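Hi R.,

Here's the chain you asked about this morning:
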Amino acid sequence: MNATRAASTDELTIRNVGLASAEAAALIAALNAEMTARYPEVGATHFRLDADEVAAGNGVFLVAALASEPVACGAIRRIAPGVAEIKRMYVVPQSRGSGIARALLARLEREARALGASRIVLETGLRQPEALALYGRAGYATIAPYGEYISSPLSVCMGKELGLVD
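And the predicted structure, written out as tokens:
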């Protein structure tokens, strides 16, 4: 078994980093490559996330690391009063199945609450069964497509009402 995958989530650190950081850039490049391979159709991917959307007061971009090695990322951004959206959530393949995604998702939900969100939404895709399963286990339900995903036949939009505490 890969040492990274075998590592305990006790070693996991999750911190807010700038979207332009080297860690963020490397993880986003890996995510983009994987999504392009899964969805090669023109217009099937939605890669946009702007630095101002994850600036203080608007959202955050998080990087999770095991033993100082970046292994996952995710962002939360406010999209409407009381509503936040998860963007760019990704775990490197060798670290999947180890609880990192659950820990990162929980932190993103806390960050959404800190931004004043009572509802959280996200978009994933039909060809991402592991993401659909993760979000389903975390209490997310399928919702009507929204925003840029309205005309995307490969998108699956999900949402969750946030409680006051974890």
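The two ends are 32 Å apart (CA to CA).

Let me know if you need anything else.
M.
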